[in-house]
Structure prediction request, 230 residues.
Amino acid sequence: MEDLDLLKKEIENYVQEKNIQLLTGVSLNNKGSILFFNDFKQLINIAIEKNIKNLFFDTNIFKEENFEELKEILEEEKITELKLKYSSYFNKISYIQLFFINEGFTFLFSKSSDWFEEYNEDSREETDDNQEEVKCKDCDNLVHSFSVERGEEYCFVCLDKKKKEGEIKIKEMSKILMEDKEFNNCKNEMERKIYLEEKYPDLADNRFFNINILSDRTRALINMKKRDSS
Ligand SMILES: [Zn+2]
Prediction:
């Protein structure tokens, strides 16, 4: 088990060595592209290559007060039981995020402690019993409110439909885009992505429509066309 309090010190020492400053108290915007790193040193070294001087650093402390929030979803008895099980972790770091934003990408190193993940499981499992169901965003089918909390507001049927629609849309769009001069002029994947995000902001926000796949597919079409005409 990794001790995140130790990891925090390691990160702080490493950035000091590299002359980089840590800024605290910033939360992540989930839109846009996030690149994940398993090794914080790798992330810091990339920041250095990109001449970035400030990194955002977020450490979350596990507190007894956290259990207050559970009162709405758990029985008092269960909360007491959980408190007891996790009391040795009070005031320890539950997760760490280290990140910077560059050219529209978020470069992120993120780590949760094993016990915090277990705690999340434990406090969630129980909520399944007092599960409420709500209507799917698109039809009358019921969806667990727990899924909705996680951002999944469609039933299985509609979810499937949405995914298929997204795939069809990618096929249509790639045919339009292959004739798009500006897209053709983009020099690399980053530029193509930024171009697509700016030109089609509604698509960039749509999780059923994968902008990376669209870009790959369009390039494949362009290459096939080139081969045909040569
Ligand atoms: Zn539905």
Q: What stands out?
A: The two ends are 58 Å apart (CA to CA).
